[in-house]
Amino acid sequence: MTLNRRTFAIISHPDAGKTTLTEKLLLQGGAIHLAGEVKARGQARRARSDWMKIEQQRGISVTSSVMTFQKDGIVFNLLDTPGHEDFSEDTYRTLTAVDSAIMVIDAAKGIEPQTRKLFEVCRLRSVPIITFVNKVDREGRAAFETIDEVADALALDVCPMNWPVGMGGEFEGLYDFTSGRLSQPSGDSKAFEGKVSTHSSLDATSLDDVLTAAGAARLREEAELAQAGYSEFDLTAFRNGDLTPVYFGSALKEFGVVELITAIAAYAPPPRPQPSSKGEIDPSAKEVTGFIFKVQANMDPQHRDRIAFMRLCSGTFKRGMKLTPSGLGKPVAIHSPILFFAQDREIADSAEPGDIIGIPNHGTLRVGDTLSERNDVRFTGLPNFAPEILRRVVLRDPTKTKQLRKALDDLSEEGVIQVFYPEVGSNWVIGVVGQLQLDVLISRLEAEYKVDAFLEAAPYDTARWLVGSDSALAQFASFNGGNMAKDRDGHPVFMARSAWDVGYQQEKHPDLKFSATKER
Ligand code: GDP
User: Fold this and answer.
1) Which of 240, 244, 219, 217 lies closest to 230 in space, CA to CA?
2) Closest ligand 1 atom, residue 83 Cα
3) CA–CA distance, 412 with 444 (Å, rounded to integer)
4) Cα separation, 497 vs 459, whole angstroms
5) Partners of 196 in the β-ladder
6) What domains does the chain contain, in order, with CATH numbers?
7) Residues enclosing ligand 1, CB less than 6 A?
8) Could you report the predicted ipTM of this complex, rounded to two decimals?
9) Could you tell me the CA-to-CA distances from 166 to 173, 175, 223, 230 in Å, in that order?
10) Is the pTM value of this prediction over 0.90?
């Protein structure tokens, strides 16, 4: 039954409305029975479960949590990508485990930096994207302006699926092009409370009965322009990541939310075949396979328990099943896997491709590991991303070098940080994509490895993996030895002072590839 799974994430810039939309999607899916903030409910939930206690101890949530809900026979797995403050490689990696994404844009602000970054990661894997232009109940920019920005800035074909009749104070409703349904605000809150009328076309006089004269005229004029000016919806183009359907709405006032769920169910792809060392593995393959995209470790030094998050790629997983992790070579029995629901964690008895399973372990499972019933396959395409923050690690007690190396190796395997060993000089450099990872690093060095270290500025801005022939690499090294390092796998890395430096070196050394990602 893999066809009924939709595994997706929401990408957005902080404040665009991801939390609100998540809450409304879960409400529609029946996963939350009480209204209220997802964030607030999260607090209560934390107090209830041991798992969440761990997060509470850490005082931070680095978890991309997994929320599962069902509607009309479809199982939706929503993987949360932590927003601004929590931004880390977890966020990127989570996107390797989804089949589609919803991109939430604030109607007044358009595409913001974080949206763009996350979008680029989706593009890397041709993840299809549904656009949700949020907050139409507020004064925003003209709908055309936002759509054009998506098309131009992201080089995507766009297809408006519905249209707002005015925005902000003039907002009179949302018109759905496919169904001819007009959803309108009602009551003091001006929220969507079920007021819907259906119209045979935009020319139907019935529209004039429910809209103001100005609203009806405006809708007809704009809708005609919009339908003439943009692409028609094309399922193949969408699933290839070339076209994005655009839905206007208001998460807060519940406009466009049902339409969004319907769109995910109807258009977003079921689990896709996954690239592996043995060619693509189809979800319908009998043997169970999956990969770990995230590991959540305990801060408590007494209990080195970890939860590895596995995306199931093929086969039907059953509790107690033995799977072989690619890093280990011998099978492990998965006795207490966890399926994630919005309200609680539950022990899973079985899971299907597209589902996420949490696997408790003691550090045997690593990010990027493949788990399978067959022992000859490895999923590819789980990238490392070029760090955006680089720091030198300095030991306060120089006799702890060995412990530090062990700690850095462990933590980089876990995916908390990346570590680079410079060819020249003795201070190792660590790289992260978000500030939070640095805090996690320092506290874990202390708590788990008893290593007292601090971080200082490194003279580098970013790093690039070098790919090329031995002679090209040797030639590059003869000029740039002082700016070269090895990553934990021994792969050569160019430590760049600036993005400009990367461009400059690339021009001078056209036979080398300066890669911003590296597949694990
Ligand atoms: P996140 O940071 O992306 O998770 O954004 P939140 O969901 O926390 O929303 C940020 C702010 O925007 C909050 O104050 C929300 O109440 C508000 N907000 C979210 N959606 C809407 C909307 O559709 N209309 C309006 N007017 N405000 C919204």
Assistant:
1) 244
2) 2
3) 12
4) 6
5) 183
6) 8-65+85-91+101-267 (3.40.50.300), 289-372 (3.40.50.300), 383-519 (3.30.70.3280)
7) 12, 14-20, 83, 134-135, 137-138, 250-253
8) 0.99
9) 8, 11, 12, 19
10) no
Q: How far apart (Å, rounded) are the C-alpha atoms in residues 165 and 160? A: 13
Burial of 381 by CB count in 10 Å (0-12 exposed, 13-18 middle, 19+ buried)? Answer: middle
Helix, strand, or coil (residue 186): strand
Q: How far apart are CA 345 and CA 227, in angstroms?
A: 45
CB-based contact 474:504 (threshold 8 Å): no
180 CA to middle of ligand 1, Å? 28
20 CA: nearest ligand 1 atom: 7
CA distance 341 to 410: 30
Cα 17 to chain centroid, rounded = 15
Extract the tokens encoding 499: 């993005």
Amino acid (one-letter) located at 59: G
Residue type for position 227: Q
Choice from 11, 19, 20 to test ligand 1 binding pocket (greatest atom count within 8 A of CB)? 20
20 CA to middle of ligand 1, Å?
A: 6
What confidence score (pLDDT) does residue 457 get?
92
pLDDT computed for residue 40 by the predictor:
40
Query: Which residue positions in the chain have pLDDT lower than 50?
Result: 32-64, 85, 299, 342-345
